[in-house]
Amino acid sequence: MKQDSLLITGAASGLGRGFALRSARPGVTLHLIDSNEIRLKDTASRAEGLGARVSTHALDVTDAPAMRQAVEAIGVSGGSLDVVLACAGITGGVHERPGQDGAPCESEYQVRRMMDVNVNGVLNTVFPALDVIRRQPVASDGFRGRIAAISSIAGLVSFPGTPSYCAAKAAVDRLMVATGGNLKQDGILLSSVVCGFINTPMVATNEFAMPGLVQTAEAVERIMAGLEKNRRRITFPRWIAAGSRLMDLLPIGLAERYYQNQPTGAAGSMPVVRKPSDA
User: Fold this and answer.
1) In order of start, what are the domains of the chain with their CATH numbers?
2) Of 109, 165, 258, 259, which is the active-site residue?
């Protein structure tokens, strides 16, 4: 698999940083995007220390015009994209509504922000990248380039504790797999990464057991190995994914009784995503 030029969103921490540092070496060009400029610069500095050529863009992936400008500039400057990794994302769950009966709920702001970052952020990465990759010659392995987006095992279920997160990740998975069926004919591999808990800052505040927790470095290796094998869906841990698919086959009421009575991941256990004015 050719991987001399990589575009990585969410590169300031977690999987994005893991991919950047794993790929950094002499002869490799990394295009790194994240909204956290300070941590992004730290990732870039570490990658440059390993010999990579690095360009950074302090952007929010929800800014479609800025994302398109940054990604298309790669092609305009004569660069290429061998691998694109859409890692930027947020998480959050339902919380009790202040002053009411305590029924768990996600705010409209949180739902819209979840969709904007986790779905539109992927679209704002994938579509400009496709325009660049389509202009590239087919490499010796038969591909012009590869694009992977981070979905989640949460996208396989309808968990009442994280409704919009489940919905967003389901959308990403279906989009990448379904669209990939067409684009493979053009020599472009689209892959969905359906993963469980990964030990990144995103889950650092979780106060419940996380079965099948995978370390970041291991997750990075599994994903890259999946891309090298041209897998359209990269899934791990498989046993959790299998259980989740079975749960989704149950009657809704039965599944909800299970979810609402389990001690782990109950409503309100995930960090809330608030309006900037609420912070």
Assistant:
1) 5-278 (3.40.50.720)
2) 165
Task: Report pTM.
Answer: 0.91
Quick check: 4 and 10 in contact, CB under 8 A? no
3-state DSSP call for residue 268? coil
Classify residue 53 as exposed, middle or buried by CB count within 10 Å of its CB (0-12, 13-18, 19+).
middle
At 8, is the secondary structure helix, strand, or coil? Answer: strand
pLDDT in tens, 185-208: 999 999 999 998 887 877 766 767
Q: Check if the beta carbon of residue 83 is closer than 8 Å to that of residue 3.
A: yes
Cα R_g (the chain), whole angstroms: 19
- Of the chain, the percentage scoring pLDDT greater than 70 comes to 89
Q: Is the four-CA dihedral 123, 127, 132, 136 of positive or negative sign?
A: positive
Question: Residues near 57 by Cβ (< 8 Å), separated by ≥ 6?
Answer: 31, 32, 33, 66, 70
Residue 6: left (phi > 0), alpha (psi -120 to 50), or beta?
A: beta
In this structure, the strands spanning 95-96 and 104-105 are: antiparallel
Is 259 designated active site?
Answer: no
Query: Contact 96/106 with Cβ under 8 angstroms?
Result: no
Burial of 4 (0-12, 13-18, 19+ CB in 10 A): middle
Strand blocks (E) in 78-132:
83-86, 95-96, 104-105
What's the chain's average pLDDT?
89
Contact 196, 212 (CB under 8 A): yes
Distance CA 225, CA 1 (A): 10
